[in-house]
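To: structure subgroup
Subject: Chain for Friday's discussion

All,

I'm putting the inputs and outputs inline so they're searchable in the archive.
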Amino acid sequence: MTAERPTFVPWDRPSPLLDAIGGFARHAADPLRAGFTVDGPKANARGFLHGGVIAAIGDVVIGHALAVQTDPPTRLVTVNLSCDLLGTAREGEWVDILVTPTRVGRRLAAGSATFTSGRVIANVTALFMPAGPVSATSGQADAAAAPAS
């Protein structure tokens, strides 16, 4: 992504939300790592990393990291998200994210992400369930079609 972060490459899984905040990266070889530089769209009015950005990016990176634990990757839907905001990062700082999968089953997947910027600034935990096939009539996932364990 930048000269100081050569092992990171631009996030290549499109999302309207991530496109809006921009500048998000994944580790080139490790699907459990991601990161970003705190800049305008990610900062609050005081120039600190916004807690909502931590929650949104945590949701995305944990979900993708858990999805690729299966072959083929499982489409997942977030059912619970929890954020412990322990510190902050200022504009211009690099934030590194490390995901730890805790469960990848047929009915549920869970994991956590630790956000650091020289120190731990947040821990995010998330619980997901497989997305069922989309119903042609309602346009929504059919919960009854989710795989059983």
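Points worth raising on Friday:
The helical segments are 16-21, 51-67.
The chain is about 15% helix and 35% strand.

D.
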